[in-house]
Design goal:
Helices cover 52% and strands 19% of the residues. It has 178 residues and is an alpha+beta fold.
C-alpha cells in the first residue's frame, strides 16, 4: 500500500531538513535526522540521504568527525527563507518531533554514566546527575564486582536519577522531628 504524504519534491525535503535542523538544540546523528525528516510518509530513505549529502556539500549543513549533523548559518538563512514552502501539517508534525528530540537531548546531558574496568578485575561505575545548564547536582563513583552488576547499576540509575538524588538528599538531611 502506497502511503501518501505532503512532500512533493527533493527541494521540499531539503527545506524540511533545514527546518528541523534549525530547531534542534544540538547536532544529531544521521539516524535521528532521518527519523525526524521522515515524519512525512512521502519522504524515502534514498531521497533523504541524497538531499542531506547535497546540503553538506553546499555548506548548508555540517557533518562532524563523529558523524553528527548540524545546520550552518547559511542553512539557517536559506531554511528560514523557504520554511513557508513546507505544508503546515508537516511543520506541525516536525515541530512536535523536534520538541521530543530536544527533550531527549536535555535528558542525555543531565543523566550520564560510565563504566571503568579496574586492574583488580572490579569495575567502577561513575554516575552523574546534572542540572539543565550542565552543572553537577550529584556525582558518585561506586565499585562493583563484575560488568553485569555495573550494567545493572547504570540501567537503574538512568531510569530514575531524580529518585536516587532525592533519596540521597533525604538521607543526608533528615526531617527534624517536632
Amino acid at each position: 500500500m502506497v502511503q501518501v504524504g505532503f512532500i512533493r519534491s527533493k527541494e521540499e525535503i531539503k527545506y524540511l531538513i533545514l527546518y528541523i535542523s534549525e530547531r534542534l538544540i544540538a547536532p544529531v546523528p544521521f539516524e535521528v535526522l532521518q527519523e525526524l525528516t521522515m515524519c512525512d510518509p512521502a519522504v524515502d530513505f534514498f531521497e533523504f540521504s541524497e538531499c542531506l549529502n547535497y546540503l553538506v556539500e553546499t555548506g548548508h549543513m555540517t557533518r562532524s568527525s563523529d558523524e553528527l549533523y548540524a545546520i550552518t548559518e547559511r542553512g539557517v538563512q536559506n531554511g528560514r527563507a523557504c520554511a513557508d514552502e513546507l505544508p503546515y501539517s508537516v511543520r506541525l508534525t516536525a515541530d512536535r518531533l523536534v520538541k521530543e528530540q530536544n527533550a531527549a537531548i536535555v535528558r542525555h546531558r543531565q543523566v550520564q554514566s560510565a563504566i571503568v574496568p579496574r586492574s583488580s578485575g572490579v569495575f567502577s561505575v561513575i554516575l552523574c546527575f546534572n542540572d539543565e545548564q550542565g552543572g553537577s547536582l550529584w556525582r558518585t563513583e561506586l565499585t562493583v564486582p563484575d560488568r553485569v552488576k555495573a550494567n545493572d547499576l547504570v540501567k537503574r540509575f538512568e531510569a530514575a536519577p531524580e529518585q536516587m538524588y532525592g533519596s540521597m538528599i533525604r538521607l543526608l538531611f533528615p526531617q527534624e522531628k517536632e
